[in-house]
C-alpha cells in the first residue's frame, strides 16, 4: 500500500490520538508492567528517578516497535477485520510518516536508556526493537507458522531490560521471567488465531491454524499450557518468590490448563473456548507478575 493510494484529505484528519494509536497502547501497557516488575525484583533499593526515566525509555521503545510494525504490515492490516481501522490502512496517517515516527522513537528510547541507566539495558532494548521489527515482522510473520513461537522473544525481553536497567546485570532470575512470557505467547496468540482464522487467511499470514489446521493448533495450545503452568511456578523453586506467589501461580496455571483442555475438546469451528482462553491468558500473565510485585513490595514492610 502506498501513501498515494489514500486520499490526501484523509491525512488532514490525523491528530495526536492517531499517532498514539500507532504505538499499540494496549500492548505497550503490558510491556511497561512486566518491565516494571523486572525493575522491582532487581536487587537493591529502587531509585524512583532512575526507574521512571528507564520505564519511559522502555515504553517509548515498545511504542516505536508498534509503529514500525504497523508501517511494515499496512498491506495486510488493510484486509484484516480487526486491524483495518488502524491509522495507516484507514488513511489517517501516511506510511512514510509512521516509519519516520517509529524510527525516531526507536533511536530516542535507546539513547535515553543508555544515558539514564547503562549500556547493557540500552543494548537489550535495541535488540528487542530490532527483533520485533526485523526478525518477527519482516521475516518470520509471513514465512512460517512458527512466527509467534520464535518472535515471542521480543515480547518476553522487557522484564530483562527492566532488571538490567536497575542493576546492570541480567541474571537467571530475569531470564526466568523471560521464559514465562516466551512460553505464554504461543497459546495466547494461537487462541486468537483460532477465532480470527479467516482474517489471517485473507492476509496470507501463515498462522498455525491456517497452515496446520485447527486440530493441530488445539493440541499445541494444550501442550504449551502444560509447560507454561510448570514454568509459572518456577520462581518459587529458585527462591525468587514465596508461598503467596506459589499459590497464585498454581491456581492460575490450573485454570489456564483447564481452559486449554476445553479448547482441545472443542468441536471444529467452535470459537467460544478459544475466546475464553485468549481473554484469560492476559489475566494469567498479569496475575503472575502482579503476585511477584506484591511479594516484593511486602518484603519492604516485613
Automatic annotation (TrEMBL):
Main location: membrane
Transmembrane segments: 27-46, 52-72, 93-113, 119-140, 147-166, 172-195, 221-238, 244-264, 276-294
Pathway: Porphyrin-containing compound metabolism; heme O biosynthesis; heme O from protoheme: step 1/1
One GO BP: heme O biosynthetic process
Reactions accelerated catalytically: heme b + (2E,6E)-farnesyl diphosphate + H2O = Fe(II)-heme o + diphosphate
UniProt subcellular location: Cell membrane
GO MF terms, alphabetically ordered: protoheme IX farnesyltransferase activity
One GO term describing the cellular component: plasma membrane
Functional note: Converts heme B (protoheme IX) to heme O by substitution of the vinyl group on carbon 2 of heme B porphyrin ring with a hydroxyethyl farnesyl side group.
Protein name: Protoheme IX farnesyltransferase
Phylogenetic classification of the source organism: Bacteria, Pseudomonadati, Pseudomonadota, Alphaproteobacteria, Parvularculales
Primary gene name: ctaB
Amino acid at each position: 500500500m502506498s501513501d498515494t493510494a489514500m486520499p490526501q484529505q484523509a491525512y488532514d484528519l490525523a491528530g495526536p490520538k492517531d499517532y498514539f494509536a500507532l504505538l499499540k497502547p494496549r500492548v505497550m501497557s503490558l510491556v511497561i508492567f512486566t518491565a516494571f516488575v523486572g525493575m522491582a525484583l532487581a536487587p537493591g533499593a529502587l531509585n524512583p528517578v532512575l526507574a521512571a526515566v528507564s520505564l519511559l525509555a522502555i515504553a517509548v521503545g515498545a511504542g516505536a516497535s508498534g509503529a514500525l510494525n504497523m508501517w511494515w504490515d499496512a498491506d495486510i492490516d488493510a484486509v484484516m477485520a480487526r486491524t483495518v481501522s488502524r491509522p495507516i490502512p484507514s488513511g489517517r496517517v501516511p506510511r512514510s510518516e509512521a516509519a519516520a515516527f517509529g524510527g525516531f522513537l526507536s533511536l530516542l528510547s535507546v539513547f535515553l536508556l543508555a544515558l539514564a541507566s547503562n549500556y547493557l539495558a540500552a543494548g537489550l532494548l535495541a535488540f528487542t526493537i530490532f527483533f520485533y521489527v526485523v526478525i518477527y515482522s519482516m521475516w518470520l510473520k509471513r514465512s512460517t507458522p512458527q512466527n509467534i513461537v520464535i518472535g515471542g522473544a521480543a515480547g518476553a525481553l522487557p522484564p530483562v531490560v527492566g532488571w538490567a536497567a536497575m542493576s546492570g546485570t541480567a541474571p537467571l532470575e530475569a531470564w526466568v521471567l523471560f521464559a514465562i512470557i516466551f512460553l505464554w505467547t504461543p497459546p495466547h496468540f494461537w487462541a486468537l488465531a483460532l477465532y480470527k482464522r479467516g482474517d489471517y487467511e485473507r492476509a496470507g499470514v501463515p498462522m498455525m491454524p491456517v497452515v496446520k489446521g485447527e486440530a493441530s493448533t488445539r493440541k499445541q495450545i494444550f501442550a504449551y499450557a502444560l509447560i507454561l503452568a510448570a514454568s509459572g511456578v518456577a520462581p518459587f523453586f529458585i527462591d525468587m518468590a514465596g508461598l503467596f506467589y506459589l499459590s497464585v501461580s498454581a491456581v492460575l496455571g490450573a485454570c489456564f490448563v483447564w481452559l486449554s483442555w476445553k479448547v482441545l475438546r472443542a468441536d471444529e469451528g467452535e470459537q467460544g473456548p478459544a475466546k475464553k482462553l485468549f481473554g484469560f491468558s492476559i489475566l494469567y500473565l498479569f496475575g503472575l507478575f502482579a503476585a511477584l510485585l506484591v511479594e516484593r513490595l511486602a518484603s519492604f514492610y516485613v
